[in-house]
Specification:
Oligomer: single chain
Order of helices and strands: HH
Number of strands: 0
Distance between the termini: 13 Å
Mean pLDDT: 94
Structural class: mainly alpha
Radius of gyration: 16 Å
Largest sheet: none
Number of helices: 2
Length: about 70
Amino acid sequence: MSEEDEKRRESAGKTIMIGIGFAVVGLLLSAVSYSGASSGSGHYYVFYGLVIWGIWDVLKGLFNYFK
């Protein structure tokens, strides 16, 4: 494996981890918002943008990793 391949895989791994982070934060914020709504006003937010962005980053990282 060349040095260029190693750098590409390292970068792809970082992209995957960042994507997982975004998705997890989006899911956690949505869960906290939902649980707060059940005891309060009944309104909650779903942070689907963070989840979608995270999934996109994971897919992009996987594609680059196995390229």
